[in-house]
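TA notes. Do not distribute before section.
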Amino acid sequence: MRVIPTKLDGVVLVEPDVFGDARGFFMESYHAEKYAAAGLPYQFIQDNHSLSEPAGTLRGLHYQLAPKAQTKLVRVLAGAIYDVAVDIRPGSETFGQWVGYVLSAANKRQLLVPQGFAHGFCTIVPNTEVSYKVDQFYAPAHDRGIRFDDPALSIPWPTDRPMLSPKDEQHPFLANAQLELEGEEG
């Protein structure tokens, strides 16, 4: 397994060891001891799986407020996505900066998005299936989002006409987003 740092502290690309032959391939998509030895000691408690039928489906940018903030380990089972993490940690030197990578069933890369980052992805091909692990359960009272088309972020999504959920259409820009629970300090 190879862990590749990004410009955002804590956000890393993971390239698992893949063993292929004429029958196909085998890989360990997650191994707690190997991840801990690589400096990624997260305790994941839930797996999520989505299917996006049309190309250009955009999900995000999502996050949960502390104390229910989530770390996510994202991978693609079928198809391909452009996967994005945005630093939303108040006071961070890289606040408002983002990274984006193509994750696909073919390249088998994974993106680890720690707590303190918003996450979103856009499908590049039809019938894309995404699976991700989280270290906190979904908490609707802590669920928040940022508009995918925030001009302050200028993320070059791979579509001009994204397919969005009604919820994702309503998210505020980062400048107006709630990043902490009222009464909490970062």
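Switch to the second chain here.
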Amino acid sequence: MDIVNMFRYEKLQDVTLVGISYGGMVITGVAERVPEQIKELIYLDAFVPHDDESMADLVTPELWAAQERAAAQYGDGWRIPHTPPDADRRTCALMKTAKQPLAVKNAAAARLRRTYVLHTGKPPDNPLKPIMERMAARAREAGWNYREMPWVHFPVLDKPHEVASLLLEFA
């Protein structure tokens, strides 16, 4: 709701929203609420939910179990801190939001221009590799713009200029 409220309070228009990883859930949810204020959605190796899906629904049972173990061990059962916690400005991953299904039913939101960028630089044994490939397939099947970049899952930390350049290409 914070992002939706910012859109309303600031009277934002023609916004391009970018989501990385779980951020795909966020930008999809925002688009459902304020599609008239959005120009485009860009998913960078991000989750692409269908109606009534949560992030927990989109990952493998093994990965979800690992998330639950990490939350129990390091985050009081409800969150997963980033390691090390002071490495950057990322906040904890919250278990409750990861299990919350998203309503994806707004016809106006469905008409928004969307782009998916699959990051192909993940090692073969990375558990996110097949999940993000499945998300990319969803985007291609829906007719979205599509690109591939030879990046790992979260390139904004080590390739910020390259990510910014790519985003500017879409402008």
